[in-house]
Structure formats: C-alpha cells, structure tokens
Specification:
By secondary structure, this protein is α/β, with parallel strands linked by helices. Helices cover 38% and strands 18% of the residues. The protein has a single domain, classed as Ribokinase (UDP-N-acetylmuramoyl-L-alanine:D-glutamate ligase).
C-alpha cells in the first residue's frame, strides 16, 4: 500500500530499502508525527514518534551512493537534520552520502529542521551543533529558519526574541554573511520568514542568498493556515525545482514560498498541487472555485 501511494506521486520505488516487519513494531516500524494543528491563540503542537523506525536503522554501507551519483547521475540530493538526529548511525549515513555526492558534483541541499526532542538523546543542542557543523562542510544549499541556524550551527540572529515570533530580514542577512565566511561551500542559503500572529494567521515570505546577493519573495500578510506542517518542506522542494529548471534565484525563492504557502492549506505535510497551481499563486491568482 505504501509503495502504491509513492508511485502515485511518480516516484521511482526501486531504491527503497525495505526492512522485515515483525508484525508488532518491536524491531522495525514506520515513524509517526502526531500534530495538533492549533487555532487562533492556541499554537500547534507536534510529537515525533520515531523510535525503532526503519529510517533510524539506516547506516553507512546500506545505500550504493556511487551508483546513484556516479552512474545514474542524480543531480540533487536532499536530506536534513531530522534524519541526522534519529541515531548516531543516521548522521554517519548522511556524512557518507554527502561525501560521495561531493565527489561526483551532485548538488547537496540540507534542511536543518531543528527539533529539540529528537536531539535530546543525541547530546542536545551541543550535539546538534557538532554533527550539523560537520555535515555543513559538504552542503551547497543550506535551508533553515532563524531557530535552525542558531541551534544547529551556532549563529546568532540579532533582534530575535525568545518566542521567535518575528524576524528582521536585515539581521538575517548579517547572520548569513557570517555563515558563508565560515562555510564558503554554501552556494545558497535560504529561510522562510514567518510571523505567527496567531496559529491561524501568519505573515509568510522567504529570503535567499545566492552569488553574493539576496532575493526575497512576495510577502503574504495574514496567510490563513489550515495545517502548518509541511510549509518548510514545501518551500525546500519549490526552491529545488526553481534551480533545477534553471529559473534563477528570484524565481526559486518565489516557487519555494508559494509552494510552502499551498502546503499549509491542506492537512498533512504534502501539498499534492501541480506546477500550474503554484505558478498561479505566484502571480496572485485568487481562490475562486475551479469547476
């Protein structure tokens, strides 16, 4: 059933690594993410249930990265901090993957995605910074919000309050310039800019650094949120699409922000929209009923 669902999205399933299931989940199971969406003054709450998952058992040597990057010519490899945080072996698997990607010139993007609960047993914030700074040496496209860059890489964003309620793009730019000096391999650094006025209404945009210049997406004030899970992933995938299609940094940040906005209008973390729908939002098309 899972494979059928993946196939519906047009994804090649031949590289999925299957692990025997014991029928109960004592040894192996799929991960779950429980989220209470929140509404108005009540913020969303999430619980990551990732223990004993198949993904947490992936370790170096399990995937033939040389074939993927060297023979099949994969152009873009994306991973992130949630996978790296699952277990010591998963962060080791990430290092193996990104080292091999670098060897073949495959673009590596990494979404920091800091989750304190996942890093708790992996050394906390100090452990997160040690592991993520090691991975960052191989990353071409670094993605993360202000909390991610602070918690995972140790870079401070000026003017950031304890609730991370809003961010000044000017201060984020200063932080990125510092980050790029320490990690000159970053060809692109990007973040979403979210001001969560309430769980229901967020100001939403994104900013991107590329080639020494900054590019900012359209600002969507008072964006109505149905389910904010997937907004960041929607941004990352839209960003990758823009670059892979050769549309340039301004278009890439617009695709990312628009796709992230659409992802938050549906339950779950997958938007299921097509390119035309994303481009319609980019052009400011209204939300009239389509019949």
């Amino acid at each position: 059933m899972i494979e059928d669902f993946i196939l519906q999205g047009g994804v090649d399933t031949s590289w999925i690594r299957w692990i025997p299931y014991d029928g109960v989940g004592r040894a192996t199971r799929n991960g779950l993410n429980f989220t209470e969406r929140g509404f108005g003054a009540r913020g969303a709450k999430g619980v990551s249930d990732r223990g004993h998952t198949a993904a947490s058992q992936l370790r170096p040597g399990d995937i033939d990265w040389d074939t993927l990057f060297g023979e099949l010519g994969v152009r873009w490899f994306h991973t992130g901090g949630i996978f790296a945080a699952l277990a010591p072996n998963t962060s080791e698997a990430v290092i193996e993957a990104v080292e091999t990607a670098r060897k073949y010139g495959t673009i590596v993007s990494y979404d920091l995605n800091y989750r304190a609960s996942l890093w708790k047993s992996q050394g906390g914030k100090e452990g997160a910074q040690k592991i993520n700074r090691n991975i960052a040496k191989y990353v071409d496209v670094m993605i993360g919000n202000e909390e991610d860059f602070t918690a995972c890489l140790g870079f401070e964003v000026e003017g950031l309050d304890e609730h991370i309620s809003a961010i000044d793009p000017a201060n984020f730019k200063k932080m990125i310039q510092t980050a790029v000096k320490q990690f000159p391999n970053f060809k692109v650094a990007a973040t979403t800019l979210r001001n969560a006025k309430t769980a229901t209404f967020n100001d939403w945009s994104a900013i991107l650094y590329a080639g020494g210049n900054f590019y900012q997406s359209m600002m969507r004030e008072d964006l109505e949120i149905y389910d904010r899970v997937g907004g960041g992933d929607g941004f990352a995938s839209g960003l990758a699409y823009g670059f892979l299609e050769g549309k340039g940094p301004q278009a890439a940040v617009e695709y990312g922000a628009a796709h992230g906005a659409l992802a938050m209008t549906t339950p779950g973390d997958t938007s299921m929209v097509n390119v035309k729908e994303v481009e319609a939002v980019m052009k400011g098309k209204g939300a009239r009923v389509i019949r």
